[in-house]
Write a structure and sequence with these properties.
single chain, mainly beta, 13-stranded antiparallel sheet, 2 helices, 35% strand
Amino acid sequence: MESSHPPYVAKIAGGRLVSIALQPRQLPLDMSAANSIKSETGDFKPARYSFPDAAVPQSVLSHMSAIYHYDRRRDVPIVSSGGDWVIAEYFRAGSHVPVSRFQLLGKQVQRQELLDGSGKAVEVIVVGWAPRTANDDEQATDPSALGDHPAWIRVFKVTPSGKKTLVALASRKTRFSVAPDTYDAPRDDELVFGLPNGQSKWRTKAEFFKACRIDLDARSLAGASRPAKGLRTP
């Protein structure tokens, strides 16, 4: 279903709104610096809403702000071509502060943020091969650049000023002899789950994920449970 006044494209099934793509200024209270991405023309990129854990009546299309009354997932494309590379967040009904935030490429989690009560990141989990001491935005696929024991998952604590400190990681037991793709997932038995000083702290991936509140399936975007607001310091 498509409309030009106001502009949107919606998917309807059984009288319920399944999803809707619209200009984010139509629901401005959900906008923030973290989820508002401008295109090359200076306009904000469209927001795509879906409702995996709520039954939203079609009637909200005549009063868009009624969408605020429902639990909702909000995706914004990172590049102008749209597609499935997005910043995805989950909002509870009546709230404009997200309870979870991810950077996704399709179903692949590239980045997860654990948020405080104001929606600000207090922990950042970065997925993808990088040197074990790399900052969260550094990536490398050259084996010589990755060095010994490259990291697959890194967990950073974030201060109120935005400074990131590496506090935990899943690192490879050996260096690569052949350059991997950034998101080539390793086997569990290839990894050590521990601290930045090289100490092994968790015996299994499951223990590591639980302790660091890692959600590589982005289940919290489905609204099934409330994600944690912080990380227990390893």
